[in-house]
Amino acid sequence: MYHFITKSQKQQLDTLKLEALVKELELKTIKAHINPHFIFNSLNGIRALIDEDPNRARNAITELSNILRSSMQTDKLESVSLEKELNIVKDYLALENMRFEDRLRVEYEIDEDTLDQPVPPMMLQTLVENAIKHGISKQITGGKIRIVSDFKDHYHELAVQNTGKLINGTARGDGFGLPSTLNRLSLLYGEKARFSIKQLTSEIVEARVMLPVQMSI
Amino acid sequence: MRAIIIDDERLARAELKKLLQDYPEVEVVDEAANADEGINKIDSLQPDLVFLDIQMPGKTGFDMLAELERAPHVIFTTAYDEYALKAFEVNALDYLLKPIEPKRLADAMQKLHVVETKENHIAPENYNQSILTEVDQVFVKDGERCWFVKLSDIRLFESVGNYAKVFFGANKPLILKSLNALEERLDPKTFFRANRKHIVNLRMIEKIEPYFNGGLLLELKGGEKIEVSRRQTVKFKEMMSL
Questions:
Q1: CA A159 to CA A195: how far, in whole Å?
Q2: What are phi and psi of B223, to 5 degrees?
Q3: Which of A8, A87, A114, B227 is the most buried (most CB within 10 A)?
Q4: Global pTM?
């Protein structure tokens, strides 16, 4: 009898260990993602800028380095401050601006008090990448991206709005961005976080994440 | 050789133009930032060569090609090779990954010269732009699959409502073109309207048999059996006796 109990306890422990490992691995594969299209198109743009605007080319290399570094480093982190995440997003959008030029306009609406809030690394980045991929890059005349961070009803609200249309009124969950975002939120926060994507107006799509507010000590 | 660059990114076009400076035989006559602009410019300028980006806003490069009457020589340019294999499958002249390696561009240019020389050799002297001859190629897109097809490789066009089924090799994709519209554009020396539903390539006929009612039955190299209507049989015999 005793023997049986220890054995089953050990089994339980093994199962838990395994689950933790799976969770960790899942997070890793999610974080490591950066769209190769983006990397190579950026490099191509930089190559052209070397003659046209050497200063812009040098800045672009720094921006790309920051993004690549953060995508590697975040493997080790469960969360970063919104401020850090926003820096990456700004570098990313600066590079997309180099490619899209006047086809991409960006607006930020950030409540400064939210800058210290912890957020899952590269999550806002993934949402912005999606907004470019499914929104701006599909529009011949381009469009606008608006990034909002605010406190709302005891939640930290993060929203990315972009010019575009959801196909058949719903987001296609077959890509990488949406399933991975949902996955990460439920792995990190369980039921305490919410995610939605919807057609805000006839021209604007909004992806929105509601995270539990972390009180500073 | 006159070329057009089609890419939605201005910097990408600038970079390619710069690389092409090493090839004085290639004159970049225009550029386009999307598929619709590309179609207009190809139609009006009739370039010998098109450098074509695949992912563009509105329509992809593949969609654009499928809308063209006659497919020019195409070198695909793409940033990431998820599409490269597809471009290769469709028998493009070549594809280049961005940023473009000068050595790879040199290889592509070499391939182009080989093809050009071959074609100048067989192109008829009184080449008529409005008629599609055997040396022309068309771009066929059926759902996710696409092909560059030489007209000389097409055995048969079959009418299916507003569409036409194109028979070549083991494939028979549908294109959004009526048989009548096709007949107007195809070279009558090679393509023959056998009946209401079929246009056959005369060089792809394997066997000719008499059929009832004074008609004929053609067997094509792919095994397809096509009936020639009585009225067209008269015409067919006239053509064959020449």
A1: 10
A2: 95, -5
A3: A114
A4: 0.81
Q: Which residues on chain A are in Cβ contact (under 8 Å) with B10?
A: 101
pLDDT band at A90 (very low <50, low <70, confident <90, very high): very high
Is a pLDDT exceeding 90 seen at residue A20?
A: no
Gap from B103 CA to chain A (nearest CA, Å): 16
Beta strands in chain B (DSSP E): 2-6, 27-32, 49-53, 73-78, 94-97, 137-142, 145-150, 154-160, 163-168, 174-175, 191-193, 198-201, 205-210, 216-220, 225-228
Nearest CA in chain A to B80: A37
Q: Distances in Å between the alpha carbon of B10 and those of A49, B7, B33, B49, B178?
A: 11, 7, 8, 19, 37
- Average pLDDT for residues A123-144, to the nearest whole number? 92
A68 shares contact with chain B (CB less than 8 Å) = no
8 Å CB contact between A197 and A171:
yes
Residue recorded with tokens 């050990």: A10
Listed by number, the residues of chain A in 81-100 with a beta carbon closer than 8 Å to a beta carbon of chain B are 98-100
Chain-centre distance for alpha carbon A103: 22
The ipTM is 0.78
Neighbours of B112 (CB within 10 A): 21
Chain A residues inside the 8 Å CB shell of B15: 44-45, 47-48
The Cα of B48 is separated from the nearest Cα of chain A by a number of Å equal to 25
Half-sphere exposure of residue B225, counting CA atoms within 13 Å on the CB side? 5
Helix (H) or strand (E) holding A81: strand A80-81
- Could you read off the pLDDT of B99-139 as tens digits, one per residue? 999 999 999 999 999 888 887 766 555 556 678 888 888 88
Give residue A40's Cα distance to chain centre: 19
